[in-house]
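Mods, move this if it's the wrong board.
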Amino acid sequence: MIPPALRLPAAFLLGAASVLAYAPFGLFFLLPLTLGGAVALWRAEATPARAARSGFLFGFGLFLAGVSWVYVSLHTFGGMPAPLAALATVLFCALLAAFPALAAWLFARLSTGTAWRDALLAAGAWTLAEWLRGWALTGFPWLAIGYSQSPPSPLAGLAPIVGVYGVSFALAWLGAALGLLRSASRPAKAGMLAAAMLLLAAGWVLRSVEWTEPAGEPVKVGLLQGNIEQSLKWRPDLLAKSLDTYLDLARAHPARLLVLPETALPLTLDEIPQGYLSRLAAAAGEGSDLLLGTMVRDGQGRYFNSAIGTGAAPLQRYDKVHLVPFGEFVPPGFAWTLAILRIPMSDFSRGPDIQPPMRLAGQKVAVNICYEDVFGEQIARALPEATLLVNLSNVAWFGDSLAPPQHLQIARMRALETGRVMLRATNTGVTAAVGPRGEIIGRLPGFTADALVVEVRGYAGSTPFVRLGNWPAVIAAILCIALFGRLRRTETAR
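Not the wrong board. Structure tokens:
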């Protein structure tokens, strides 16, 4: 048993250590241990308020270690003074930590003292808090614990059925059961261990299930990684270099579908030199199509972070729906931040919620831009019509940090949930192709100018997640909280 004076530091360290479960470290088996330790600490606290404090420090350690790359974007590339950027990063992580604090408070408030019940309660409280974090204040579901369970974790097999939050529920239950096992009766221990083995075995078996089927002919795709340094990208005197970089890559790597990253060129669509896109498409080969990220200015003077499909196919367009606060739009009351941050084009307009897939290279391509792929239900809106998923990103804003490998891991979860290939074209990395089982088909090293050429298949059909979304996981979480809350009130009344 940890002495009371060491419980809060232990909670923080457990949270920070949890980052090792995510990419690029990949110690997926670690999270049940750290989360189990956290739940045991919550159980040991005398009041819900003290448990919430422990939950806050667990979350603060997790986010401070896991999303500290926010500092890089604010200071190194956004121009915010270092002390202010550090303060903003700490406050942001503290805001995110409020959700684990809520989970800990709910657990302590409704705990019945029975190990197997409390394990389900902890799983429900954690999952509900995590889901709330995914949409509150525009949503930031980064580092949902389910993301840590990409292959080879056996829990990856659950993703096509219940999505990332369902995986989070299963993982939180495993951790809580482990953390509470010591206090369980002998029959309860046996039952919890048997249930854990059954859960892991079911996930392993489900990994072999084919939820979708190939559609259309294989397509040769070229994913271009220009490696244009973020601090140099917007310099007018280097524009010609950017144009030449992508044209040279296209000529050296012809493909049926050529994909360039988010805002590949520091120009709006109407500013791109006449004939340049045609030369790009021609470089890819006769009959080829081109998909690139660009900024679009409409007739009303509004700007959109967009993707354009062209080439042999007619001109098509996708406008980003889920914008990044401060990076792509300024929340009401925060216009003063523009005087501190030097982020070009930080006032975009949203695209429509429903946009049809693009018809490119014989496939129906659902495009998402930047961190839109963090929102699984948004990706599923284009399904089952879409046969191929493509993410265009520019994570050069975060330098050589944990952000690029974490983002690739998120893309692997989207591929699992949807049973689709997910293609990622990025400016500096990680450019990759992910198969429908979450496997990495190919990837480029970061911070190199190169192209990844792969042959992929489109896929048709729907996984259970595509049909039902996150609701099974959310409803299960709410039912656990409601059920054990009622039991707690009944037992207290006695």
